[in-house]
Amino acid sequence: MSEHETADITRVVDSVLRSRRSLRAYRTDPVPRELLAEILEVAASAPSNSNTQPWQIHAVAAAPKATLSAALLAAFHEGTLPPSLHFPDPLPAEYAQRQQDFGARYYQSLGIDVADMAGRARQTARNFDFFGAPVGLIFTIDQRLAPHSWLDLGLLVQNVMIAATARGLGTCPQVSFARFHPVIARHLALGEHELTVCGMSLGYPQHDAAVNHIAMPRRAVREFANFDGFE
Ligand SMILES: Cc1cc2nc3c(=O)[nH]c(=O)nc-3n(C[C@H](O)[C@H](O)[C@H](O)COP(=O)(O)O)c2cc1C
């Protein structure tokens, strides 16, 4: 590959990586099945330990998506499921501080006061209609595997987001679904070993929605990486 070709690829790949954002407002335009299949096909190039590919994806649109969303919203409002375990309680201070910063930016973009718990709960509920996106994805893993296999699934999830972004689509990865595994398992007739890890909204973004323009800050490289033995 020539230097020019490499530079072009670097520019394109970096731009797709940097432009991906979690999007939470979508147009209603449907996403063709062939386009989604193409995204999943390229995303499946993700590496996995010993090529085990321990993932399953359930894609829902139209009536099946509406039925699943209705069941999830009902369960959310009932509030009878155990609380989410995806973060420890209490969250260590460093992470709690970033989580608070996320909340401040997120709710501000929506005009919701951080002290308005009812407003926040209404926004949390939007997770379950996939923020109005025409496609909902549920990612499951074979729960007989060890925690390291979740890393494989994470790589697939990122690939789906990047392949979608490169095609003008938007996504939001959502762990909110994990807590509702029993509802999802029933509605999607999941196999006995499948465990819901996360969901994802996918569709054409509403570019003018302020919530789609939150620039979440990142830690500087020097804060999270050590370099040793370099010139
Ligand atoms: C594993 C994972 C789970 C997430 N779960 C949710 C979720 O349930 N609901 C939501 O609105 N955003 C969710 N997010 C999006 C994060 O809030 C978002 O990635 C983070 O704030 C950084 O912003 P960015 O994706 O726009 O760069 C999740 C992200 C990841 C990676």
Name a few traits of the molecule.
8 helices, 4 strands, binds flavin mononucleotide, four-stranded antiparallel sheet, about 230 residues, alpha+beta, about 15% strand
CATH class: Alpha Beta
Q: Which structural category do the helix and sheet elements fall into? A: alpha+beta
The stretches of 5 or more residues where confidence is low (pLDDT under 50) are none
CATH architecture: 3-Layer(aba) Sandwich
Largest beta-sheet characterization: 4 strands, antiparallel
The share of residues in extended strands comes to: 5-15%
The CATH topology is: NADH Oxidase
Number of domains: 1
CA radius of gyration is: 19 Å
Cα end-to-end separation? 27 Å
SSE topology sketch:
Elements: H1 3-19, H2 33-43, E1 55-61, H3 62-78, H4 93-110, H5 117-125, E2 135-142, H6 148-165, E3 170-174, H7 181-187, E4 194-203, H8 221-224
Antiparallel strand pairs: 1-2, 2-4, 3-4
Helix pairs in contact: 2-6
Residues 21-22, 24, 102, 127, 172-176, 198, 216 line the site of flavin mononucleotide.
Summarize the structure.
This protein is α+β, with helices and mostly antiparallel strands and about 230 residues long.
